[in-house]
Amino acid sequence: MSKAAPSRSFWRSAGELVLVGAGIYVLEQTRAHHNGEAPTLDWNRARSIAMRVASRRRLHLDETGAFVGVDEYLSYLQNAQPLVAEYTQTILPEPLKQVYVFDRRQWLEANIANFMILFAPVEQAYREASQKLMARSLTPFVSLGGSFLLSTQLGLLLGYLARRVLGQYDLALLGREPLTAGRLYFVEENIAATEHALYLPGDQFRLWIALHEATHAFEFEAHPWLASYLNQRVEEHMQLIVQQLEHLPLFPDVDGMVRVLQRAAQRLAGGGHWVELFLDDRQQALFRQLQGLMSLMEGYSNHVMDVIGVKLLPDYVMIKQRFEQRRIRQTRLDKLWARLTGLDIKLEQYVIGQAFVDQVVREKGITFLNQAFAGPEYLPDPVEIRQPERWIARMARTSPP
């Protein structure tokens, strides 16, 4: 976790979705099978593994009496909304009402449904490519073993996340009917477990989480273009994967593989994350664009939490410090897992994003910063998000009308 972020939302952050999509593409091109009808992913297997992982060390809320329901979380949100509105100078089109209190299994079911929508175009492209190759009596390029391994990996990742997510703002992406309001998920099983593990005051802790997620709702729902923009970027990435699947060579392309390895070596030498190593130039540009956007949104939410939380919650500083201490005390296995899955990029988003937001507000104020949400052309680019002074200078020249 970052300094102040209370939640590890997977679906909310399209950056992580891009990581998984890129990983699927890379894995699928490295395996071969003998059945052109095999699906890319075995969703039943992924679900089963995720459920087993999530079931480890579960806290049975009905036995402890720690369960907090929808009405309580609605009350926390009602407390947070006017404060966020006043500080950010934005107004929600309607109050936050789509609130769900989940255990780990319920959170998994909601997010697996999202993933199935996300990867449907890739799976369809894979099936069509496989059928073409089988019609020519050629060996398709993904094995049943590859599908098995990939489904296992996704199940492990989702199960791991299900044990850690506290809150999530879920908006409509890719194929669902557009919504004017997102859904707010609170994983009470994890919230109660964290409350007990860190000896936190329960009401304040839940209000802290509600404040974070409410800020994300303000970002999207007070600026409707943002959800469409994010949707388009995620869809564009998935389309690039589909196009690459459709144009895979029928026979091994040695020269192409050499070029890919050379590009990967150059990026590795330049300090790039392993996830970026096998992305082509368009995918890498899109990946970094999404990372910049999500850094802004996470940093904005953290900034708002710091400003409001310290006034709203008597124990805000203590809650924040204990979360930071937990992050520092992560085991080597946790750190390795974060690196392998790309979740360390999520943590970097919080740090870079909050540094950007804090500096802009400190120098120019929240009204100036809010110009970033006036339209896509005003968002900080991947360089500006790391160098706030460049965005400040650009906005001083080209402020929104």
Short account of what is shown:
This protein has 401 residues and is mainly alpha-helical.
The gyration radius over C-alpha positions equals 22 Å
Strand residues, percent = under 5%
> What is the 3D form?
globular
In DSSP terms (H or I, runs of 4 or more residues), the helix count works out at 16
Question: Percent of residues in helical segments?
Answer: 55-70%
Q: What is the domain tally?
A: 1
- Separation of termini? 37 Å
Report the mean per-residue pLDDT as an integer. Answer: 75
In N-to-C order, the SSE pattern is: HHHHEHHEEHHHHHHHHHH
- Sheet having the most strands: 3 strands, mixed
Estimated structural class: mainly alpha
Give the number of DSSP strands: 3
Which regions have little confidence, pLDDT < 50, spanning 5+ residues? 1-38, 136-145
With strands numbered from the N-terminus, the spatial order across the biggest sheet is 1-3-2
Structure description:
- There is one protein chain.
- With 401 residues, this protein is mainly α.
- The chain has one domain.
- The chain is 65% helix and 3% strand.
- It has helices at residues 14-28, 43-54, 61-64, 70-88, 104-135, 144-162, 188-198, 202-221, 225-246, 254-269, 281-312, 316-328, 332-341, 343-364, 366-369, 388-397, and strands spanning 99-102, 167-170, 183-187.
- Helix 1 (14-28) runs antiparallel to helix 6 (144-162), helix 8 crosses helix 11 (281-312) and helix 11 packs across helix 14 (343-364).
- The longest helix has 32 residues, at 104-135.
- The radius of gyration is 22 Å and the shape is globular.
- The protein starts with 13 loop residues before the first helix and ends with a helix.
